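G., the chain you wanted modeled:
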Amino acid sequence: MYTKKGYKCCDKYDGQTNTIIQESGKHYAKAVCKYCNHFLKWLPNPNITDDVKKRNVKINKYIQCDILNEKQKKFLEDIQIKRFLTPKQSEYLQSIKIKYKNNLKI
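Predicted structure as tokens:
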């Protein structure tokens, strides 16, 4: 359901949408009006969204422990809002996991 205040793409539009999965390109899917197929917005890939949520649950556990220094905690807080990590960010996150794997059971 897409509801942008005051928006109507056609006379029948009531906020109901259809989802069209993209076969190629950088977007996962798009939401279109159920009645006139007018494009409304791009939709995120649910698998990526779930992976980010799982990663953030683990990151929160790291942040809450007392064994990390301030630089490490700041780094973890900063990457929580990112959908994708750069190779350097992934490498640093992995180094934190390895360094503290015996102290944290995550």
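The chain has a mean pLDDT of 83.

Shout if anything looks off.
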